[in-house]
Design brief:
9-stranded mixed β-sheet; binds beta-D-ribofuranose; about 325 residues; alpha/beta; globular; binds calcium ion
């Protein structure tokens, strides 16, 4: 801990690698982690759009914001079946709504799976892996290097839900897009933080906040982000009837920046792989969280994750907006 100028105690910057599928909210997570963490790399995966698009989008965001962070390309398809994309929310390119710069560099040569392993070995015991897309790269890295789980400080996941889903009534998109990978990640033994749709759908930019990004005298980055967020909010209104643009992915960064803005409970989490209606659902055993629950249920299953159940949404979003406005 170090003392901040204002007297508040602040955590030392967490070393973080973001595995993502940009994606509007992924872009915000990248910008936020670049300023509030020690961001050692970005790995890309299929998800909101094709791997080609998510990789180009990650590079374009780095170019826009002047981030000198290596980007490694990962897997184009899930472990089983074919890729699912989210064009209804993120558009044809995965990042529709604004004119993005042509990337000023390409991805590094290493595949994302190797890059994750390399970085975890280099920063043994320190690296936080923020997984905010389908978990294919991470599952393959865990399979390739059995020591990986023990090298990581934590895996923080935007994925799953303790309540409703978005891609189906039961499943959240990132887990649904590769349930076999998610099952392997939840079972890997590393300390896991799950910030799911139950919390992230309520944690987003309002229309006045998007207007503020555009008008508040921020830089070009904030202006482009405002256009992107307007497209994304319009999609959320159209598809889900939500009146905020949920900042799903950045929520997974917060446990390592401002942990007090989220509330977690420890729980056993497993991924449904077989259900006709529930494939990709995260089954979170929250039965023992009820006051007075019988002892047998309390002891039934060992928790493997800290699961977010609430956020201080307005404070969290205010902090994100400050970071975006400070970019040139
Ligand atoms: C998740 O799915 C994607 O569309 C978002 O980027 C986020 O990671 C929300 O379900
Ligand atoms: Ca994402």
């Amino acid at each position: 801990m170090t003392a901040a100028p204002g007297g508040r105690e602040e955590l030392a910057l967490a070393k973080m690698l973001i595995d993502c599928d940009p994606g509007h909210d992924d872009a915000i997570a990248i910008l936020f982690a670049a300023r509030r963490c020690d961001l050692v790399g970005i790995t890309t995966v299929h998800g909101n759009a094709s791997l080609e698009n998510t990789t180009r989008n990650a590079l374009a965001i780095c170019t826009l914001a002047g981030l000198d962070v290596p980007v490694a390309r990962g897997c184009a398809a899930p472990l089983v079946g074919v890729a699912t994309h989210a064009g209804d929310i993120h558009g044809r390119t995965g990042l529709d709504g604004a004119e993005l710069p042509v990337p000023d560099r390409g991805p590094v040569e290493a595949h994302a799976v190797d890059f994750i392993i390399e970085q975890a070995e280099r920063h043994k015991g320190e690296l936080v892996l923020a997984v905010v897309g389908p978990q294919t790269n991470v599952a393959l890295a865990l399979r390739r290097e059995p020591r990986l789980a023990s090298w990581l400080k934590a895996i923080t996941i935007m994925g799953g839900s303790t309540t409703i889903g978005n891609i189906t009534p039961a499943a959240e998109f990132n887990v649904y897009a590769d349930p076999e990978a998610a099952a392997a990640v939840f079972a890997c033994g590393a300390p896991i933080w799950m910030v799911g749709y139950n919390v992230t759908r309520q944690t987003g930019f309002t229309q006045p906040e998007i207007d503020r990004l555009r008008a508040a005298g921020g830089g070009r980055t904030a202006a482009v982000i405002a256009d992107l967020m307007q497209f994304y909010l319009d999609g959320q209104r159209r598809v889900f009837g939500l009146d905020i643009a949920p900042m799903h992915d950045v929520c997974a960064v917060f446990p390592f920046v401002r942990p007090e803005l989220l509330t977690f409970v420890e729980a056993a989490v497993e991924v449904e792989l077989a259900g006709r209606l529930t494939r990709g659902m995260t089954v979170c055993d929250l039965r023992n969280k009820r006051a007075g629950a019988p002892g047998a249920i309390q002891e039934a299953r060992r928790p493997n994750a800290r699961v977010a159940v609430a956020s201080d949404a307005r404070s969290l979003i205010a902090e994100v907006i400050d970071v975006v406005l400070a970019f040139p």
